[in-house]
Amino acid sequence: MATPELTDEQRAAALVKATAVRSARRVFKEELTRGEMSLAEAIRRAKADEALAGIRVRDLLQCLPGIGPKRAQLVMEEIGISLARRIRGLGQHQVDALVERERR
């Protein structure tokens, strides 16, 4: 499928939107890393915001203290979450399992 031809205005608007999404995701991840919100709160906020809902679960978990790439992968495999899954694609049972796992 060919990429649609965009006008200069459309291209500029897309660039502004992409920059805003990246900035929102960066701030969100920093807040989670600093412990300003729990995993449950982070998932709730992400489900309500389309820009944040596109974050991969693996990246979300790696923002938590003490969880690196390997542990994030192990947690996801233990719960049965695909490594490519984004927050918007999590089911309620998966969310519950992640929150319960964080409490341990």
Automatic annotation (TrEMBL):
Domain Integration host factor-like helix-two turn-helix: 32-101
Molecular-function annotations in GO: nucleic acid binding
Cross-referenced NCBIfam families: actino_IHF
Gene3D superfamilies the record matches: 1.10.8.50
Domain of life from the UniProt record: Bacteria
Protein name, UniProt field: Integration host factor-like helix-two turn-helix domain-containing protein
Record-linked InterPro entries: IHF-like_H2TH, IHF_actinobact, Ribosomal_uS13-like_H2TH
